[in-house]
Amino acid sequence: QVQLVESGGKSVQAGGSLRLSCAASGRTFSRYAMGWFRQAPGKEREFVATITRSGTSTYYADSVKGRFTISRDNAKNTVYLQMNSLKPEDTAVYYCAAAPSNSYRDGVAEYEYAYWGRGTQVTVSS
Fold it and tell me: What is the pLDDT of residues 68-125, one digit of tens each?
């Protein structure tokens, strides 16, 4: 069992930056690939970024590529999402999720993830 708690969401101006954190409980954090998803008002939840267990490989949605960076610190049981050059269309609730090795494929699909946080709100104003 893994419990995930996101933090760092806030209201910012367009062009600004934020760093989201996701703290995981337990001693098995390094066994899970991690991902960030987001859900804007009235829209389906969508993939943002994923990182493998060791942190050596990452993958991003086209909409955030070059602006967002996912990273992890296995010693701190934490995954991060650094968001730069924020746009109003980045406004959403951001969720982190943990994927066990037996279900992780490329990290894009929600079904690959077994555990989810409750989300943190990011609002970008123009």
Answer: 999 999 999 999 999 999 999 999 999 999 999 999 999 999 999 999 999 999 999 9
**Alpha carbons 84 and 60: distance in angstroms, whole number:** 14
Q: 124 near 16, Cβ under 8 Å?
A: yes
Structure tokens at 11: 């209201």
Q: C-alpha distances in angstroms, 21 versus 50, 69, 120?
A: 14, 12, 9
CB-based contacts of 39, cutoff 8 Å, min separation 6: 45, 46, 92, 93, 95, 119
Could you tell me if 121 and 57 are in contact, meaning their C-beta atoms sit under 8 angstroms apart? Answer: no
Rounded Cα distance between 4 and 77, Å, is: 10
Maximum separation of any 2 CA atoms in the chain, in Å: 42
With tokens 């490329």, the residue in question is: 106
